[in-house]
């Protein structure tokens, strides 16, 4: 028996991905982070950040947690805050999926929607959340803290303490590589540091979506982006504090067509209904497997569920409007009459 929903965060299954493994002659494993109580890998960061704020004495009883998020961190923070008796204020770019915004409202988070702007613009959701946290800290008798997931290294420390060691234990230490995409970098850096501490020979890779600057940075030293992606929660234009010192050995770039092909195949053939970032991650794992050669074991992250993107990735009209292929099974509908 668990005494709180917070104890249900983490300890997620590690699932062998059949087609990716067959294709590469490697064992490709997906950590089922969509099975966390808040439905994503970000529950871990939310819990680690809140625990750290409490330990530092920054978050007082009845206080407010403020954050700028693409959604999943907010959902995790609201869950943790509700379980511990805090208030949550979330700033989200209006480009994010309706499903995530609905989940935030359903969780009781106070939602502030802002137009999507680059980080350099003071209207950017992260920058708005920082100012809001400062204002609420001054105005609210119980105080407020800014979770600051991008530059608060409690985020990556949470992954270093939990996600990385779990992967090591679940593979019996027989893991040769780990790959994932970056939003804050907490997962990549935390898992990377934990696995390297166990074995310096583990290859750590980044799978970067189009429109993100990190592939060019790790490949050639220059923070430079081109193109765009419909994936959410990933892509980064700067070296966040969580990314500083991340042990990255391998970098690849994954476009939406490749990522979505994998998302749809995993849903249709393996019963894994996932969001777009998981497709980027599995594509990255396949690239690293090809780079290392057959016989290796590579782990990646299955970040969240496809249910969170029903109105986008799994909507035929949306896909067509973006010029992306629509999988036939998505349009089969009710062909069998009752
Ligand atoms: N996938 C999804 C769906 C996410 O919401 C996030 C977090 N923004 C990530 C991947 C990336 O995780 P991290 O912030 O640890 O880099």
UniProtKB/TrEMBL annotation:
Keywords: Amino-acid biosynthesis, Pyridoxal phosphate, Transferase, Transit peptide. The keyword Transferase applies. GO terms for molecular function: transferase activity, transferring alkyl or aryl (other than methyl) groups. Residues 6-304 form the Tryptophan synthase beta chain-like PALP domain. Pathway: Amino-acid biosynthesis. CDD domains: CBS_like (cd01561). Its cofactor is pyridoxal 5'-phosphate. Signal peptide: none annotated. Pfam families: PALP. GO terms for biological process: cysteine biosynthetic process from serine. PANTHER family: CYSTATHIONINE BETA-SYNTHASE (PTHR10314). This is Cysteine synthase A. It comes from Lichenibacterium minor.
